[in-house]
Amino acid sequence: MPGTGSGDERDGVDERLAAIRAALRRHGIGLELEGDVAVLSIDDIRLERPWQLTERRGPRDDSPQGGRLLLADRMSPARATVARTRGDWYADPSGRIYVRAPGVLVDVRDRTTQTPGPVRRSATAGHLVVQNPMSPRRAQVVCLLLDQPGLVSASVRTLAERSGVSVGIAQQVLSDLEARRFLRHGREGLNRVDELLDQWAGTFGNGLGPRLELGRFSGEPELGAWLTRGQSVYRSGEAASDELRGSDATLYVEHLDMHAVVASRWSPRGDRPNIVVRRKFWSEPPRAPDVYDALLPLRLADLLVTDDPRHRFAARPVREEILDRHAR
After folding, report:
1. What's the CA gap between 255 and 23, in Å, rounded?
2. CA neighbours within 13 Å on the CB side: how many for 316?
3. 98 partner at 20 to 30 Å CA-CA among 125, 208, 290, 302?
4. What pairs with residue 213 in β-bridges?
5. Strand pairing partners for 190?
């Protein structure tokens, strides 16, 4: 590990690293140091790089080698420019951060305070860009905002808890929605809900949907065994539609209970599995074990993802119901 030193020096290093970690956390970025390698966690992405703790009076950035993560007490604009040009990443306690990798660009500059808050994009103040605003964890947050308009004005912590994500990710989503003008001024509600809903549903099949999937089975979608074992089941897709009658079912549960699967006589083998089981990611007040309908955006996406004309027709009233909630 770079720079061990005496006990007092080690304490000072730990304090400096703690301040930088706190700054990264405000933007939903985790930092762990594993020997000479720094591990950054950004949503579902893990990035690794050699790291260097710079000197308090400023490092002598004279090494021609890039590809490091510089952890600095202060990253001046001049030093930051050199680091970016050389291919280094950096972070300091005031919140200046630069990370660039496939699918990720974090570029926060000239933040003179440590006050947390939304990161705004502008030509001069720097910006935080998430190149995949509908990555699975961010899509969870957008799903809750689309389903429950009141969460738009709730605290970030409440939104995070309800969505099953960290506070940092919830804040990133709000910042991104604001930057793309999907968020009304003062977080009074969502703008262009139809456009946001279509974007969210369009990415579900290749993003959040597969990430939540626990298994596919063939059988009759009887749910009594799940309730007997104390687990609620949330119906989606065809199973939750008033327009369709069939044996296909998409179900959301807390976890995959194989005892319930066996008792339900579901088979993981078969040419055409008709039951898809996904993980329930959202939280809600305690309820007695029963069969409930899943969140409206999930019901919409699970209908659209099949490309079945009957399902697309049945998706129309679900979409309208979501839009009506935001029009009230």
Report:
1. 34
2. 6
3. 208
4. 278
5. 183
Cβ–Cβ < 8 Å for 305, 209: yes
Cβ distance 255 to 325 under 8 Å? Answer: no
β-strand partners of 253: 279
Measured between alpha carbons, how far is 173 from 268 in angstroms, rounded to an integer? 36
Residue with tokens 């969460």: 151
State how far the alpha carbon of 11 is from the alpha carbons of 7, 168, 207, 255, in Å: 6, 27, 43, 43
Decide if 61 contacts 68 (C-beta within 8 A).
no
* DSSP assignments along 67-90, one per residue: --EEE-S---HHHHHHHHHHT-EE
pLDDT at 127 over 50: no
- The enclosing H or E element of 286 equals none
What average pLDDT does the chain have? 84
C-alpha to C-alpha distance for 136 and 199, rounded to whole angstroms? 13
Question: CA 154, CA 310: separation in Å to the nearest integer?
Answer: 37
End-to-end CA distance of the chain: 57
Over residues 267-305, the pLDDT tens digits come to: 987 778 999 999 999 999 989 999 999 999 999 999 999
pTM of the model as a whole: 0.64
Strand partners, 7: none
Contact 233, 223 (CB under 8 A): yes
**Residue labelled with tokens 């069969």:** 291
Predicted pLDDT of residue 2: 54
Residue 255 pLDDT > 60: yes
